[in-house]
Amino acid sequence: MAESMPGEAGNIGNADVHLADNRLNLDVFPNSTGRFSVLYKTRKAEVQQVEFLRLNCNEEQIDSSLAIVPELKRLKSLVLKANLKSLEELYLHSNQLVTVPTSLAHLPKLSRLDLQNNSLRVVPAEIQNLPYVNLKGNPIGEAESPNIKGCAKPKDIPVRYLASDTDSFIVTTEGCKVELPCGIKIHFPPEALSLAVITCRVTSPDPQQVKLRHHDFLLSQVLELLPHGIQFEKEVHIWMPYIPPQSDHQRELVIRTFSESWSDLDTKVFESQYLACCSVLHFSWFLVISRLKENKCTVPLEGTRLFSSVDPNIKVTFPAGAVTESRMVKMQVLPVAAGDLHELLQDQDSVASPLLCLSQNTTDNFLKPVRIQLPLPSGVTGLNLDRSKLHLLHGDAEVQDWKDITHQVVLEFTHLYALFEVDHFSWYWLWYTTKTYVGGIAKKVYERLRRWQVNFLVLQRKKDPEQIFLQCVPKHKVETVCKKLETRYRGPEPSDIVEMFEGEQFFAGFEKGIKIDSDRPDCVDGRIGFTFYSHLKNSKEVYVSTEADRKTKAVRGQVSFYRGSLPENIPEEAAKKRKGPDSMWLATLPIKLPKQKSKFHDEPRMDPSYPPLNLGDEETGYLTEANLLSIARRIGPEWQNIGINLGLSYSQLERIGYNHRDDLDKQILEMLFTWAQCNESVPGCISQLIQAMKKSDREDIAEEIHCIIELGRRKYHDSIRRVGLSQESSNEDSAIAMV
After folding, report:
1. What is the pLDDT of residues 689-720, one digit of tens each?
2. Among 65, 220, 279, 284, which one carries the catalytic annotation?
3. CA-CA distance, 605 to 732, in Å (whole number)?
4. I want to staple 268 with a disulfide (CB 3.0 to 4.6 A). Which of 277, 470, 622, 725 is the partner?
5. Active site residue 426
6. What's the whole-model pTM score?
7. Is a pLDDT exceeding 60 seen at residue 600?
8. Cα 179 to chain center, whole Å?
9. 664 closest CA partner among 583, 738, 602, 575
């Protein structure tokens, strides 16, 4: 229905503004943008439900209308009747657009067109060739993708679901879609391969292999697909689940892969499903990372401009003749909040601009100076600027050093910006401070910006104090994590805050009479190894024991955390900063094994009546009777629940409980070996054991079984490789033999 709305005093007189259901038609009115602004202010809730909007915008008023449009979350159609010849920037990102008009390429003053993260499969060549267009995150040239919201499922392609103890499958010309238990999906279109055996492994990140760049966050496990380097006739699509980071418009998610060196792939992100998707023509290693948002363009001979999508006030202008042949340039921006800077420096007078990181695909200098525009630091304008306090710093990414180049360039100022010219790319940072040695201060701040403040947790299971839960948690998550754990665990307060880099190794050592199984794959010199990744769990649960006599009194021990190797590209000064008399020490927390009240765990659980046992096979690795005895030691009163999840009947469990009613140890052993002897030759029995432990809330045991199997699998593949029978050397023959 149509309703009238009073105009804004001095600007708009009384007139009928037609707001009919989900449509708003203002294109027939003069000064429609003024009416639109008033309507939005007075009836905001109704306007936000509009799906179809028509406006008649003149050049002076178009900005005010476009500023409101992003607030219309349900908008499907926007018609602008206007003369757009003066339009300089147009942002249409993240709107599920499926088409874009060619006429946008002919706007004479347009210098930035942001179309990223839409659903554009076909884009006019005139648009694609614009040096200032951003088309990242669009499925350009792709057919409808499979089994993902917004993408059609391919027809007649077989789907295979791999068990947790299976890591290989065959791909033929008909193609297939493979789903791993961890949620990873791989789609081979028809005729992508003739015939091949594909091996997939999902592993924890190895800091010696995974190379993160400055300000990168790891969000997933590492997916390795073999054989490396095999070429596909058609693109293979990979979907990887990731840990959702905090929403941040300054960052973006990409899948990173290794091919001679680590590089980032064009990535489509499905935020509602926490999936990242990429397309590849060969296999290697893959992982999901969060990085600073990247803007890039190709610099043609006639020149162009590059804007930051994080801060549009930052731009780089390339004049005509700056290059003799086209080159790719990239820009990343790290905003530095004034409050964070004050907290780091304990200085209220120092402020800085966003940090600008520029790079290019060549080491050649520009033939003509490139002009860079940076916003002045917060609170500083051209009116109150004291030039003696303003410093332009030049950063070196390799040595992480900052030099004051204020007197080496010609700085120009407007009311809001600083402008200067360079002939090569690096990092640039504007500082406004009374400090003298600005380069050293910037180096210290930059180092601190890369660190995370964390706390360590050491908790014991309430039902079984020998089960120790260890975790390294970023400071802002500690309270939430502790609340989730308090129903099942108890222990001391979190440690004091320490600082760690993304990808830094650390170790947990058990001391004062407490010991662990040193045969664990992650145990180094009696200490449990970790690698800190801010968005991953960084947690392990271990079983501990003691040689002290617990029949008469409790045993009081402790867990100490120590630094390991640092990730690459860490300043030498940071590597030297350690705490305490032991330069590697981080924190220590107490634990207590209570006085024993029964003969549970009093004696070793070795029973010669159990025969030798091998669960699994050579390729996946075995669980032997010794492994099962070790697992049995970690099971407590919850043994019946585990037995049920393993598929044992109630009558079997009741009989076991009655036969050994005075000995909990034998009840546990009998349950475990009864299941094992019945399933020794059953394919997938190890996967069943792992799932049963997870269902019984014993993730720690499931993880230990997985580590044992992974170690056996690795040894098997190494032995195969040593005798020259690896899949890489006989891939096709192996595939034919398996068919």
Report:
1. 888 888 888 887 888 788 777 776 666 666 65
2. 284
3. 48
4. 277
5. yes
6. 0.66
7. no
8. 20
9. 602
Helix or strand or coil: residue 126?
Answer: helix
Q: pLDDT higher for 452 or 523?
A: 452
Catalytic residue check, 407: no
> Has residue 602 been placed in a domain?
no
> Which residue has tokens 């500023």?
67
pLDDT in tens, 322-380: 999 999 999 999 998 888 888 888 888 889 999 999 999 888 899 999 999 999 998 89
> Is 424 in the active site?
yes
Spatial neighbors of 676 by CB under 8 A, at least 6 apart, are 613, 615, 628, 685
CA angle 656, 658, 663 (to 5 degrees): 80
Q: Where does a domain end: 121, 139, 173?
A: 121
Average confidence score pLDDT of the chain: 81
Rg (CA), the chain: 31
> Which of residues 10 and 445 earns the better pLDDT score?
445
State the CATH number of the domain containing residue 585: 2.60.40.2660
Between CA 341 and CA 343 the distance in angstroms is 5
**Per-residue DSSP letters for 581-621?**
SSTTEEEEEEEEEPPP-SSTTTS----TTSPP-EEEETTTE
Q: Which candidate in 282, 342, 601, 717 is catalytic? A: 282
356 and 441 together in one domain: yes
CATH number where 229 lies: 2.60.220.30
Provide the terminal-to-terminal Cα distance of the chain, rounded to the nearest Å: 68
Catalytic residue among 424, 476, 583, 719: 424
Note the pLDDT of residue 155.
55
Query: What DSSP string describes 341-406?
Result: HHHHHT-SS-EEPPEEEEEESS-PPPSSPEEEEEEPPTT--TTT--GGGEEEEEEETTTTEEEE-G
Token pair 């940072």: residue: 429
Residues 382 and 439 occupy one common structural domain: yes
Residue 34 lies in a domain: yes
Catalytic hit among 204, 359, 378, 426: 426
User: What is the DSSP secondary-structure string of 424-487?
Assistant: S--EEEEEE-S-S-HHHHHHHHHHHHTEEEEEEEEEEESS-TTEEEEEEEEGGGHHHHHHHHTT
601 within domain boundaries: no
Q: pLDDT band at 583, cuts 50/70/90?
A: low
Q: Which two tokens stand for residue 373?
A: 């525009």
